[in-house]
Amino acid sequence: MGYSVKWVADNLGITRDMLRYYEKEKLLPANENRHYRNYSDEDIERIWGIKLLIGIGFTAKEIYALMNMPDFDFDTAIAKKVKELERKHEEDVIYLEFAKSIKFLGRIPTTSKIGSVKFDDFLAYAHENWNFYDDPRSAPFMQIADTLISKELQEWSPDDMERILKMFENFDAEGMMHTYALHGYYQVISDMRGLGYDNDAVQRVVHLLHKYLVEHNTEPGLDGKITPKFIAKYTAPFFISGDVAVLHERNYGKEGYMLIEQARG
Fold it and tell me: Which residues contact 151 (CB under 8 A, 6 or more apart)?
């Protein structure tokens, strides 16, 4: 009896319109009599191969040549396709990691002035300097942040706990002190939530935080650039959107983290 169009759709995921496209491109014999069509075992095998080749990037023209031209060099064609897929995979990984970084921080990387650098050059720079999931120093923290955001404590697996413990084992004392110092400033500001962001005491703590960031800056490229305006532009947004804002809300409460954002902004 053969295989019906419905069977092909249900089992191979190929619609009637796609089968007609295959026929139009001469990848399948045309249904000349326009009657209800059944496909043979040979047809099914061919349809399977066509879909697979299209899925990895072959064009209908290339598939036709493969099927009908004895001198078609399949080895060269598939080697070329592998290289194309490898390049695409690298690009996909880069953009996936960018998307995850943007999701975490809640903002898109940009330059101080659009047009000051070509986009491709900026993309290469941002991938090297802004991609936290690709940075050996920050990648473990990002994995833990994903766990903290997506799971409650009681849902942590033994592997989750092991990753967290290993991060703390590998965390150098200076980095740990810096993290606790920042948390201390944020906690003090949060505890002043009843005073308002423009209160003199709140702003004094903000001033001390700014002074601390300047004195403990480890990036030579930021020397002289960590001004209150710089902090407002590049760090205050971390309390507004993105996964990092979720973490801040958990640490300091909604009112507390909103006061921190207002005071630093």
Answer: 160
